[in-house]
Amino acid sequence: FHKMRCVVAAEFLLLQLFCPFLFLSIDLSPFDRSRTPLYEFHGAHGGKMVEFAGWSMAVQYRDSHIVSHTHTRQRCSLFDVGHMLQGALSLFTSSSGGILDDLIVTKTDQGYLYVVSNAGCAEKDSAHMKVREFKAAGHDVDVEFLEDSLIALQGPSMVRVLQPGVCDDLGKLTFMTSVLTPVFGIAGCRVTRCGYTGEDGVEISVPSKAVVSLTEKLLANSEVRLAGLGARDSLRLEAGLCLYGNDIDETTTPVEAGLVWTIGKRRRLQRDFPGADVVVPQIKEKTQRKRVGLISAGPPARQHTPILAPGGQIIGEVTSGCPSPCLKQNIAMGYVEVRKKAVPALVSKMPFVPTKYYTGQ
After folding, report:
1. pTM as predicted
2. b/e map 341-358, b = 16+ CB within 10 Å
3. For 116-161, what is each residue's pLDDT tens digit?
4. Which of 153, 171, 283, 340 is such that its CA lies 20 to 30 A from the CA of 177?
5. Domain named Aminomethyltransferase C-terminal: which ranges (predicted)?
6. Would you list the domain boundaries of the chain?
């Protein structure tokens, strides 16, 4: 993903009209980068590199992704997510109600919005934001692309590992809140309590020149290991979290995806976001297609695997699937036609593994 900062005048929220959530979301990426600042570091630590959304990322290290997955659930893992833009989950929607992108937005104490979004959606997100139109209309809006790196420290040991390195009390930093603070002596870091694993964790934006130093400081703790995209994918699937391009896309509405909670009450009443004429009636009248969790026997169900009713008719399609290291079962998510009878033995509530987000309670 990419990082950027949006500076807005007074309380005016940039792109309020273009995003269905309470805050706005942004992802601009005019610069072409295919390697994060930790690229050489990954190679030195046995990282197996693969292409992901135009970036060269570590899919796993010397350990298997199953070992990394389990370590994250039990202790703490460090992920390089420097391919992401930099909180509340929000969505960009099209005029037809489809999801253009999902983004994390943080309203900061410094007077700007801090945004993280998908690298692969940069071009269409940029066009969707219509910054030039806002400026031409006289609005005081600036967008700044941050060259900082982004790493994620995820797992139940996170607080024990990170607290000695920050002055702020992490007990007061709840899920989806953020603080600007030095981390282990490195200035200019932003710590946001969020993540993509279902575990308690943080994402740390750090000046790129210092990211290797910070990574080494964190790995010096025996609780911390490196983890790659493979573990991140199975962790997010256990947590019931969507992957853009697999589980949500421009053909999927927030209602079908089970993401209605991202649309604030005022948005629903005012219908002031693209696709509202499609999405709001779906909220009230329900939709004919729904994202569900699945548990299956035999080989794991992969993307595009048909979902069949007992009579053999196709009623949907799998969008993500993998063996669950925690449940020792095959799990998947996909979309089914809700007009037809479901198969209770195969349908599971999500998340498959309970999330452990820290809310201060």
Report:
1. 0.78
2. ebeeebebebbbbebeeb
3. 778 778 777 777 777 767 777 777 777 777 778 899 999 999 999 9
4. 283
5. 289-338
6. 2-238
Class of domain 2-238: alpha beta
Cα 355 from Cα 44, distance rounded (Å): 33
* 26 Cβ neighbours under 8 A, 6+ residues apart: 4, 6, 14, 15, 85, 103, 105, 113, 115, 117, 125, 129, 143
Is the separation of the CB atoms in 143 and 137 below 8 Å? no
258, two tokens: 């089970």
β-pairing, 88-93 vs 76-80, is: unpaired
Distance CA(32)–CA(327), nearest Å, equals 40
Q: How far apart are CA 23 and CA 5, in angstroms?
A: 14
CA distance 218 to 132: 41
- In DSSP notation, 137-159 reads TT--EEEEEE--EEEEEESTTHH
In angstroms, rounded to a whole number, what is the distance separating the alpha carbons of residues 279 and 80?
Answer: 35
What is the full DSSP assignment across 321-359? Answer: EEEETTTTEEEEEEEEETTSPP-TTTEE-S-SS------
Angle at 185 between CA 181 and CA 186, to 5 degrees: 65
Q: 199 labelled as ligand-binding?
A: no
